[in-house]
Design a protein that fits this description.
Length: 600
Amino acid sequence: MDCVIKSGPRMLHRWRWAIVVHAVCWAVSATSASAASDVVLKRFGRGAGPEAVGIVGASEDAELDGPQALYAGDNGELLLLDQVNGRILRFDPKQPAATVHSFALPPVLQPSDMIVHEGNIVVWDGAAHTLQSTGQDDAPMRGLEEVSTRAADDDTIHSAFAQMGSQAADSGQDLVDGSSRSVADTTNAPARQFVASRGRGAVVATVVRDKGGNGATIGVRPRDHADAIAVLHLEVRERLGAVEFLDIDNQGRMFVLVEDIPQSSRHGASAFIARFTPAGTMEGVYELPLAESVALSRRFVTVSADGDVYFLRTRAADVDVLGVGFRPLRDDRVIEAVGGRAETHAARVTKLKGKPAAGGAASVRPVTRERVIATAFAFESARWRLTSSAYGGDPEAACADARLRTRRPTYLNGRLDQEIRGIPYCWGCSGSLDKVRAELDRGVLAGNVCTHNAPRPDVAGVDCSAFVSAAWGLDSHFTTAAIPSISTQLANAWELLPGDALNKPGSHVMLFLRFTPDRKAEVMEAAPAACNGRVCRNIYPLASLLARGFEPVRYRAIAGDDTIRVSETAEPEPKLPKRRHERRVRHGGAHAKKSLRASR
């Protein structure tokens, strides 16, 4: 399909975004019309062979788990983080038939992100770890070992990981003060990003957002002096989300990742890479097909030294590496594209109308945002001792099939008889914090063991929706498909407040904490991959969540929006009342009740 070009300013489609450079307006929607110019360069099937990647299938309240990161090396090769199989694959995207090289990750690391810095692979596992390869250079299978560097203190490495949200969360002490409740009151203080560019070496990009919320100016200079390389201007039609200066290629062209997040459900979120000339003039954009990827990957896009843009698309049966098509800028044209890459927020809302929302009879009582956040932090910061009975036998031997959802939570591996932080992830498990901790103290197995299609009754922990249910103070476990029956869908994602949620019915839910200063979404979630099998805090670019079907929702029984503060450690944990009836409320129940038995 081809893009429809119109010379006039008429609006043709409700799902669109625009960039303004000086007085020139150039608008393109994130649509399937542009997908024709995206090319599949390499396809990996599901498995553990040299031409395959690990993919763990999805089911109710469990997202598909596949490769998490794609990164362009210095010599034109691409590296793919195949974390399910515990390795990194290296291949040439321009020679798809060439040998794929495999590098085994150290077993002590369970990374979710990856970059290349100064010739070394650096992975993110809650912190930065620098890896070097072992074995002969031409061997198709080699190992990786960690080397001692100052990666943890290198602001260039931290900026590179922060591009996609792989960053340490700030202290929770000011989590719900007046400046973090929404983006409405966030400051426009300049943000500095440190980039080890291919074309100009170490540079500093200073991003200054406009007061209107939909534009920004980016000053780019060499790190060792103050003379500017270029000053870039951009503006989106809706509201500017994340703005990340990615790289300068060998031709001096500059690449910036930009999000356009709508303020109304009439539009859809989009993300794209804007390309600028060495002089700072915009040439055009690469539209990112976020919604075409079934799984939520961490580093979904990368730029090579030659200026090629690659996208990681994960589906249930295979993984594609796409070469993203470029849309040039026409100085005298406004380009309006018709169609859509994905179902818009409004379309999804329309589909829900007329269908009974899944729910269940539950004793629902009003809960404050303070209580919700304190409970969430208590799940994340809870400390308990991993006994031999809670650790169990070696699950790897019994769970050789990679399609099984998860073995033992990876953050527990090798930590027998040690103090553990964080409640483990367990698909199908539920309960209050008091209940789960009591089970762990009794030596009940911690987290999943060979879980596939049925929850196991002999395992302790929480899954994503059980965690959110407990944080909201629910007596029953509402699944992601049942959450719409007890929540209100927000038309504007920017209205999210601490204690709200981002829910994808049938797949995954995250408790929203706040917007970061760079306008990403900080969340608390229980996840096998993103959290290595526990409850943890994470940060995501907002467009990558919205475009993949996550809906902003607000629990109907939440009481008040009082300004609160939560201590960094969230200790001691809140005393939640023990519940006599802990049950899982699945979607499609014949006796679902939509009303809330609560005094508002």
